[in-house]
Amino acid sequence: MSDVVTMDKIVALSKRRGFVFPTSEIYGGLGSTYDYGPYGVALRRNVKDAWWHTMVIERDDIVGLDSAILQHPRTWEASGHLESFTDPLVDCRACGQRFRADQLEDNQCPQKPSVHPGEYRQ
């Protein structure tokens, strides 16, 4: 039995314990989309409530807002996101994780801590 934790093992455990279920599973599913089971709904609610309390309720310089994530393309033009937004990522060749290119010096590969993401040494 391997002690390596993989995404497949996490998903399998989450399904067995009733946290998540593949969307439309009885019809063959829909890749990488999940519905929350009873425990998943409760966990998600607790995480959201804790985040909201820390980021909004406890601070006097932040206000809460709930808006649509789908926006008219002109909204993105007006905000400058289409013209100037870039967030280049680097795939670490040792562990396969992605890191923001502007934060490479501050990150370490979890498998090879002496290696900065993007480098690879045997």
Structural features, described:
The protein is α+β, with helices and mostly antiparallel strands. It has two domains: 7-57, no CATH class; 71-122, no CATH class. The protein is 34% helix and 10% strand. The protein contains four helices and four strands, in the order αββαααββ. It has helices spanning 7-16, 38-57, 73-79, 81-84; strands at residues 20-22, 34-36, 89-91, 98-100. The strands form two sheets. A two-stranded antiparallel sheet has the order 1-2. A two-stranded antiparallel ribbon has the order 3-4. A hairpin with a 6-residue loop joins strand 3 and strand 4 (98-100). The protein starts with 6 loop residues before the first helix and ends in a 22-residue tail after the last strand. The model has no long low-confidence stretch (mean pLDDT 84).
Q: Strand-and-helix sequence, N→C?
A: HEEHHHEE
What class, by secondary structure content? alpha+beta
Tally of separate domains: 2
How would you write the strand order of the largest sheet?
1-2
What does the radius of gyration come to? 20 Å
Shape: extended
Name some characteristics of this structure.
single chain, 122 residues, alpha+beta, two-stranded antiparallel sheet, two-stranded antiparallel ribbon, 4 strands
List the helices and strands and how they pair.
Elements: H1 7-16, E1 20-22, E2 34-36, H2 38-57, H3 73-79, H4 81-84, E3 89-91, E4 98-100
Antiparallel strand pairs: 1-2, 3-4
Write a brief caption for the model.
This protein has 122 residues and is of the alpha+beta class. It has helices at 7-16, 38-57, 73-79, 81-84, and strands at residues 20-22, 34-36, 89-91, 98-100. It is extended and about 45 Å long.
